[in-house]
Amino acid sequence: MERIRYKEFTDYDDALEGFTNYRKKLNDYIENNPDKFLETFRDIKERAGQGDVICMDVLAYYYKSGVPSLLPENYNVYLKWEILSAARGNELAIEKLQFLLGYAYSQIMQCEDYDTIVYKNDIEDWNIVYVIGKAICKMLVKEMRLFPSDLAQEKDVKAPYTQEDFIIFRKTVDDIIPKTIDYMKS
Q: Residue 4: its pLDDT value, please?
């Protein structure tokens, strides 16, 4: 299969439409044809492993809560797919992560080099969430050593959200804030 090339940003409306279409199809399969759900989910996982940002976002959605008797909940896998999708410019995924990354945005926007960051990254009021969010997620991908092809090969195991997971994630975000600032001002 040919490797998928991704755009700098996947427009919010396009990402939402793609996400919604996949979700409707998969939810119908959950109710009416569980085997088809598993087959389609594997196909989506393969596409995500090749770089499809909408498929990454779809996987994140289903891993966050799991699907009873079909897919185990896995909070860490949810975060990884959502971060990968956002790092590759999926505006919908960036918005979904904004709540978890809000304090990182604040730290970047309050740094002494913020004017340089705005200038060098063409930040304006309408794109601030997307540009900064993508940069944060790119640094998270690097720090967490996330590769879609590797993540697509992982076995599905149950791993619900824990406070310890959040503490580890928060420390990772803390670690990448100065790296993100350096990246954005370079």
A: 55
